[in-house]
Amino acid sequence: MTQTTVYSREHIRTISQYGFYLLFLSAPLLNIFRFDILDGHFIVFGHSWMLGLESSEFECLDTSHSVRNVLLNFLLPVFILILITGLIAWKFGRVYCGWLCPHFSVVETINRSMLKYLNRVTFWEKPSFKSRQALPWLFVLSICILIAFIWSFILLGYIYPPRLLSSHLYHLELSFGPSLFLLVMTIILTIDFFFARHLFCQYGCSFGIMQSFVWMANSKSMVIGFDKSRAHLCHSCDSKCDKACPMRLPVRGIKRAKFTCTQCGICLTACDDSLSDNPEGRVIHWVSNTEASAVDRQAASFAIKRLNKSK
After folding, report:
1. What burial class does residue 257 get, using C-beta atoms within 10 Å of its C-beta: 0-12 exposed, 13-18 middle, 19+ buried?
2. How far is the C-alpha of 214 from the C-alpha of 38, rounded, in Å?
3. Which of 88, 92, 106, 275 has the least CB density, counted as fewest CB within 10 Å?
4. Residue 39's closest CA among 50, 25, 31?
């Protein structure tokens, strides 16, 4: 794997993440997609989406026309979306999570901040050295609170007219309902981002778990494979691929141990950096089809343990 290919993969993923993150933030503001709770219908690309059951027309429609409108305007688009998502997950796994998901983008951002200022990625890991200064903790917490408030405002904008919400917030004229939503959601998201962001991705996100189940059902889907014949090269890297994984997974383990893998490829970059001087390149790769089936059967994790014991 050349450095150009590595940078290309990282740049493509960064662009896709930033692009989708901007879409997530701007969708309600630009009326790309939101639900208007005041008017009681969806807004899609600036147009009202009312399933063809507008009150002015409802009395003129018989049951068959009503059912047809619901099927064509709601159930069919939802089914197509679920089908496309399922096929992608079946073939590639949780690529949405690793390449598009706004929450995972926040996970990576806060991971980098915690590693830089607190010498750890999560609270469940020991820091490389402990700092008695409170300022780094407060700085990371401030980042979490800021992102949590922005998210709360955007999420509220998906159901409440964003321009009206912005005006009320600017003039401090928010009613009790929106104010309570912003306060409670900011607190919940701050706790999530600061303490449990990885746990949410692993156990709390129903969409992510659904992708994982579909991915696991296909033994030939894309997965990180480990070249056991070159396992001796792992002696000198101190498991950098495992430490780099945002989901804290055993990268060289069997597929079942990587149930929540997001296919972000960060572990591949870590292995590239560790073996940059080796002409044969890294020892882990994306594999699929027959090679992927082997990953589900091989006991790579046990091979690593044996090698570590033999040092």
Report:
1. middle
2. 37
3. 88
4. 50
